[in-house]
Amino acid sequence: MHEAIILANWPSCLNSLVWSHDCILALAAGETVELLIPVLSADSNDVDTGLQGTQHWINVHIRTNLFSSTEVPPIDPLPLRANSIGEEISTSDTACIEWSPPGLAKHARCALAVLTTNLNLSLWVSDSDPKVTRGWRRALVLNHELDRYFQQVYAQEEIRVELEWETQRRLRRRIRSFAWSPQPRPSQPAEYSVQEAQFPINGSFIAVSNDDNDVVILRVDSPYSFYSPPSAQWSARAEAHFSFEPKIDLRRTPRPFLLIEAMGEQRYIGNLAWSPWTTNSHGVPEAILAYTTNHSVHLRRIRISPFSSDVSLDQTDIFSDATVGTREVHLLRWMPRAHGDVFYLVAFSQAGAFCFEVPCRDPSKTTVSTHDLDKRWDTVAGCAFNGLSKTEPRVQFLSQLSAPVVATSELKLPIPPTTESRTPPFQQSIRDSEKLFSAENELAGHTHTKAWAMCSSPMGDLVASGVSFHPGDMVEYTIAATSRTHIGIQPFEDTAGAFILPASGGLCPVEDLSAETLIYCAQTWLEELPEESRAERSVRNTILEQFWRALGLSNHHDDSLVDKYPETHADGLDLGERTLLAQTLRRAVYSNDKGILKQRYGRLLTLFFDPKGTTQSDDAPAIQKLVTEVLKVPRWSYHDSEASQKIRTVYSSMLPWLSDAEASGMYDGAGETLIDKHVERCEICDDSIGFESFAWARCGQGHEFVRCSLTFLAIQAPGISKLCGICGKRYLNEESVVRTDKLAGADKSQQDLAMPNVDGGQQGDILPSAETNVTAGEGSAKQGDGTGQGKAATADCERWPITLARIVFAACDVCIYCGGKFVG
Question: Taking every annotated instance into account, which residue ranges of this chain make up the domain Transcription factor IIIC 90kDa subunit N-terminal (predicted)?
Answer without folding.
Answer: 19-490
